[in-house]
Each structure stands twice: as C-alpha cells, then as structure tokens.
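Troubleshooting entry. Yesterday's outputs looked truncated, so today I'm pasting the complete records for two proteins to confirm everything comes through intact. If either block looks cut off, that's the bug. Protein one:
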Amino acid sequence: MFAPLMMLSILVPGTFAASSQHARCHSNKLPASITVAHVDRNNKNDISFRLYTDGMTTRCPPLTKHTSHNAPQALKPRKVYECANPDATFSYDSHDGKLKIWVANDNGFFGGSVIVSDLAPEVISVNLDCLSS
C-alpha cells in the first residue's frame, strides 16, 4: 500500500511540470497577412506594416517617434523589434528587402520571412513555420 502512494507522489508532480513548459505547435504552419503601410524609399531602413494572424492584429513597429526631430526611428538590420503586441516581433534588412516575422501564441512559436519591394502586392500572405520544439 505504501509503494503505490510513493509512486503517485512521484508521477503526479511530473505531469504538472510538463504543462508549464513552452507550448508545442498545434499545427506546422500559421497563416499570416501583412499590409505594408509605409516603406520610405529615401530611408530604406524605415518600414511600417500591419500583421494579421489568427486572433492577432498588430502594428509593427508601434507608433513611436524620435523626440528630437519627430520622425520614425530608422531600423537597424538584424536587430529584432517588438510590434505593438509584444507577442509579435520582426527584423527588417533594407539591403535585400527581407522582412522576418516571429509570432508567439497559444498554438506555439512561429516564424517566417517575406521580401518587401516595389513589386510586392499591397497584401502579402505568408505561412509562418512552427519553431517550437
């Protein structure tokens, strides 16, 4: 009788610990749409867009201005920035026009990239891949 109680005391806490780990993806892909609102051709490191995914709509980057000259902050290549919803992050490299996007939600952690150029459509659709292990 004592042995089964001892086994339960070992197994039960282990099952609760597993639920507190990072969420695994419920699907391999997360469909997303991007509406590019602004790409400054003179300052190629200036871009703003809206990101739409299942259950999330957010502006990237959030509306913040430099206090010194009331202009949008120039983005640095390979630096990751938060969107208005911090569950979405992005990086933009003006040299090749690559916009990388990462989204964390209840279904897992997803990421992907698109190329933003003069020829890009107004709405860009992308399937973000599951990055949760």
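Protein two, checking that the full record survives here as well:
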Amino acid sequence: LPRRRRLIRTARQNLLANQKLLDFRFYWLRKTTSSNNLK
C-alpha cells in the first residue's frame, strides 16, 4: 500500500513538471512570436 501511494505521488509530481514545461513552452512561443511581429 505505501508503495502505491508513493507511485501516485511521483505520478502527480511528473504531471506538475509536465504542466510547468508546457506553460514555459507556450510563454516562450508567445514571446518569440510577439518579438517577431514587432520587427
């Protein structure tokens, strides 16, 4: 049982990390596109 709980916790942490990565990627894309539009 404790091992399963640990697996769930790691899965949740992986989900959070993926979400942060996606947010950063979207922010970077928006930033680059906006700077390109300014040129």
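Both blocks look complete. Sanity check on protein two: The two ends are 58 Å apart (CA to CA).
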